[in-house]
């Protein structure tokens, strides 16, 4: 029982909950907020620099030929998710309100994760080279596509947030430029990066936690918890659970219905159903301002933790299936 709970609530999940509590009880204000804002900008740049440095060109080439799989993952991430978000509007607004619904829609247009999608695919014995290519492409394309989808699907006043073109420019400078520089330096630092993956993973998590604390602090100061009541938070959690269940079922069904083999179906499930906090939190800071930032982040924070818990269990289920198939043969 204890091992099962540790599988669901890993160290990062527990620390993230502590960071949310810290931002609620001790939000950064005044000069402290200025300090954390500057530190966050540096952390985000370093995070995406290292993402670029980690990306192996050999892995990209190995996976690029599988265009049918990548097309389906892309469609699930940037078409299926947003359609579900738009169609669910009449149900979600009475449950969670306008601002949190906007956060759900923002969640739906985000790119997929990179590290966890690849890790779960590997654990489940899926097509890892295809997962590397698909997840990495989703992350890069999302830097440009997500702001356009936000502008297309959301009614955000110009007084409350920047224009789509301005957002793309800001996001490109903050995320894409460090990513490109990091990848360009891979011939020089690639071996060092590959030999220190565990330490760099902690750096990734620390950067994400810092960004979450800074962003939530600003929202708490703006009165986030005066508008998001416990009942609403519970409704939002249930909504995220239902969304994940629908998407997991659809990705599994589509993979089987379109004739992909078992390894590819696993890759489609884990790459097509996940949303990236590492990309989403920095984007939210650029796309949303003032009182909109907190409600934009909450669905992502909740969904991200639920997807990690559920996909950890699902990956182990796939791995046991593979062991059983191998034993029977």
Q: Quick gist of this model?
A:
This is Bile acid:sodium symporter. The protein has a single domain (18-319), classed as Na+/H+ antiporter like fold (Up-down Bundle), CATH 1.20.1530. It contains 16 helices and no strands.
What does this structure look like?
The protein is mainly α and 329 residues long. The chain has a single domain, classed as Na+/H+ antiporter like fold (Up-down Bundle), CATH 1.20.1530. Helices cover 84% and strands 0% of the residues. Helix 3 crosses helix 10 and helix 5 packs across helix 14. The longest helix is centred in the C-terminal third of the chain and has 36 residues. The two termini are 32 Å apart.
Distance between the termini: 32 Å
Task: Tell how many strands the DSSP assignment holds.
Answer: 0
Query: Spans of 5+ residues with little confidence (pLDDT < 50)?
Result: 1-5, 156-161
Tell me the CATH architecture. Up-down Bundle
Keywords: Membrane, Transmembrane, Transmembrane helix
InterPro entries: Na+/solute_symporter_sf (IPR038770), Put_Na-Bile_cotransptr (IPR016833)
Protein name: Bile acid:sodium symporter
Pfam families: SBF_like
